Amino acid sequence: MRRLRVLALAAAAAAVVLGWSAATYNRLVQVRLAADAQWAQVEAQYQRRVDLIPELTEAVKGILVQERTLLGALAQARAAYLSAPAGSPRRVEAANDLERSLGRLLGVVEAYPQLRSADVVARLIDELAGTENRIAVERRRYNERVRVYNTLVQQFPSALLAGFGHFGPRAYFTAPPPAGAAPAVNLPPP
Length: 190
Fold this sequence. Notes:
mainly alpha; de novo design (two linked rop proteins); about 190 residues
């Protein structure tokens, strides 16, 4: 009788551990997939930005004859983004290069009043600004998903199962290095 009781307690303990393990594993998978899905949203907004670049380049090409190197750098950055594997560090770096090139192009557009007044350019710049805002929102959401995932992966007792299931911490999206520098403001003299 005593042996049966010990066996029943051991079976109950094993069932609890097995149930906890299954629930924790499923939760780890759920939050990892949520982070993956959120990264896909960031990628979708990057793609939207990449799709706007040829239109913007064509719209300003005729006026910016002397800015060919800038347009070439923008085309190179776009090509690097499109050729990099999705989700790879190379693709993130290419997206950051693309962002810097677009910033330089927008600075040039601001310097040419005839460009600013062109309806097509104004519409494309508005679309690009909206896309940049969407990218910022999606990056923030991605970082929040990564925070939830990393917390779960590193907290006890789920960290025990995370180690066995190869659930390592994920990297947050960080801004490229020049983002921390204050922008230069050059106002014309009164």
